């Protein structure tokens, strides 16, 4: 479900990220100032507007995106991913729609190192510093220091556009109704795109309503249609919360 958490405006203090939204991105010139901005966002995370995407699947990788915004302006995107060899979380700290910091935390189930974290710092969407730490056990990893590493510059603007598209179900994430399956304990709405190697998404239906009964009875009628579906992400799974036809 695209959940909106009301933002507690209150008094905006200097350390509050909302107070920094009016500051030019050029102020964040080094990793220290960028870390301060990221820390302030984490400290006030519950105060931001929150919205989550569907759980998308392609090529043995599944993920969903959480976006945190202040007065309609994104301050953080989080990509929650699961693959064959482990899990990944990517945190994109944004100011005025420009990336300042990308933190990637990886847990590898089979290969060494099992734990890895990398931080990339950006100025005007251009990478200027990257550092990483890794270990094979959690205790060693948590005490390890970050060390400078070389990292390739990527098209950050395009990456942020993809994350936003996942949230708003546009572009590669504009999926349509493919079908609805039935299992003993739940049904699943299947959404897909009529293209090779495209994303798919499933939504678990725990409680049926008239709309679900209509989909079950007339599935062929709705095949290929865009459905406006409400959902909530629970334990990494999209759970159906009602829908309306567009």
Write up what this structure looks like.
The longest helix is centred in the N-terminal third of the chain and has 13 residues, at 31-43. The protein has six helices and 14 strands. It is globular. Helices cover 20% and strands 43% of the residues. The protein has 246 residues and is α+β, with helices and mostly antiparallel strands. The two termini are 16 Å apart.
Write the layout of secondary structure elements.
Elements: H1 17-20, H2 31-43, E1 49-52, E2 56-58, E3 61-70, E4 73-82, E5 86-95, E6 98-108, E7 115-123, E8 126-135, H3 138-143, E9 147-148, H4 156-168, E10 176-182, E11 187-192, E12 200-205, H5 210-217, H6 219-222, E13 227-234, E14 237-245
Antiparallel strand pairs: 1-3, 2-3, 2-12, 3-4, 4-5, 5-6, 6-7, 7-8, 8-9, 10-11, 11-12, 13-14
What key phrases describe this protein's structure?
single chain, 246 residues, alpha+beta, two-stranded antiparallel ribbon, globular, disordered N terminus
């Amino acid at each position: 479900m695209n959940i909106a958490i009301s933002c507690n405006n209150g008094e905006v203090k200097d350390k509050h990220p909302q107070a920094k939204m009016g500051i030019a991105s050029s102020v964040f010139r080094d990793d220290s100032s960028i870390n301060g901005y990221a820390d302030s966002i984490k400290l006030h995370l519950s105060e931001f507007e929150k919205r989550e995407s569907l759980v998308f699947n392609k090529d043995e990788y599944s993920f969903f995106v959480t976006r945190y915004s202040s007065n309609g302006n994104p301050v953080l995107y989080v990509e929650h991913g699961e693959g064959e060899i482990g899990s990944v979380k990517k945190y994109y700290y944004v100011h005025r729609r420009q990336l300042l910091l990308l933190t990637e935390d990886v847990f590898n189930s089979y290969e060494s190192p099992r734990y890895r974290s990398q931080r990339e710092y950006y100025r005007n969407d251009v990478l200027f510093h990257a550092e990483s730490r890794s270990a094979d056990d959690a205790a060693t990893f948590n005490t390890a220091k970050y060390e400078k590493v070389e990292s390739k510059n990527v098209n950050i603007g395009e990456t942020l556009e993809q994350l936003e598209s996942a949230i708003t179900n546009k572009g590669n994430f504009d999926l349509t109704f493919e079908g609805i399956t039935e299992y003993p304990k739940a049904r699943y709405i299947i959404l897909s795109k009529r293209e090779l190697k495209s994303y798919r998404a499933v939504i678990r239906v725990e409680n049926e309503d008239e709309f679900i009964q209509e989909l079950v009875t007339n599935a062929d009628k709705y095949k290929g249609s865009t459905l406006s579906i409400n959902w909530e992400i629970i334990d990494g799974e999209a759970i159906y919360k009602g829908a309306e036809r567009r």
